[in-house]
Amino acid sequence: MSLLPHYLRDRLLAPDSTITGGGKPHAQGLDLDDPLDNLYAFGKLWATYAQEPVFSAFHGLMFGMVPGQRLRPLFGYAGFGGFQARLLANGNVRLRGKETGFFTDLANGEVLEHWDNPYTGERVRVFNFLNDRIRGELSPVMPVFHFGDVDDAPTLMNDGTARRNPDGSVPFILPWQRCGDSALLSWDYTHRYRNPVTPKRWPKASTGEYINPSEHFTFFSSWQALADRDVPCASFQCGFSRLSPWWPWMRMGGSGIEGALFGRMHSHKSNRGLSDIPAAILAYAQQHHPEYLQACDDWDDGFPIGTWEAYARSVP
Length: 316
Hints:
Elements: H1 35-46, E1 54-65, E2 72-87, E3 93-104, E4 114-116, E5 123-125, E6 129-138, E7 144-145, E8 155-156, E9 176-179, E10 182-190, E11 193-194, E12 210-211, E13 214-222, H2 223-227, E14 236-244, E15 260-269, H3 279-288, H4 307-314
Antiparallel strand pairs: 1-2, 1-15, 2-3, 3-6, 4-5, 7-8, 9-10, 10-13, 11-12, 13-14, 14-15
């Protein structure tokens, strides 16, 4: 699943519409009641305003949740992303990047190609996740996500903490909290939409007509770094959890085993190049997917997809 919100626009970035160096046309400091300041801070937290992408990574465990049973550790989940941001003259932030997600062996942390499913006894081929088209533009309006069919309700980012105006609009104001020199940020996606991996076409991969994956983040960063307009990028440490139906590649469809996946991961960005990426993941990417360690070459709008969409496109 994607870790990046996107509010896609039908226009491209004009070369002269960028304020270089992550600067802004008003005073130092942050007003967290101002959507434009929220955009600026989010751009340097998640990505960087520098000329080269910044790499962040995540790593942890996935557990199987079956009613009435103890949670069972199934596999590791780890990956990385390389992101950049541009601050536009109107205060919007344009983002671009690539991301990966790999499933790893519990014993040695190596990337899995096959996995023995303890629920079904079947040896299955693992479908690792690659997304090289993270592109889009954030505006002063809180982004919404349109997945599934046209009639599926969109997902509002941070629905639980959104500030709704009397007219129903939602400004891009995030639930920042300041604790001394630390800035804390909570961030949630809670999706529900029609499953691209349909029961009719993928009876063993599909868990049903709808899916409801969610992701939840708790960021810790430096308030001083976020507020300083001369600093193009702020480091972070983050707790990352995920709740979803069984992944399609687990082939749980028709198994009769009702349940879900719960993941708990670390995520972090320290502006030290590739050193944040776990060694086994970096080595695997260098050998099999080196293009994900390179910068994007355009700022166009993209069509980012989730794991289920990628599986439906790639697996007959």
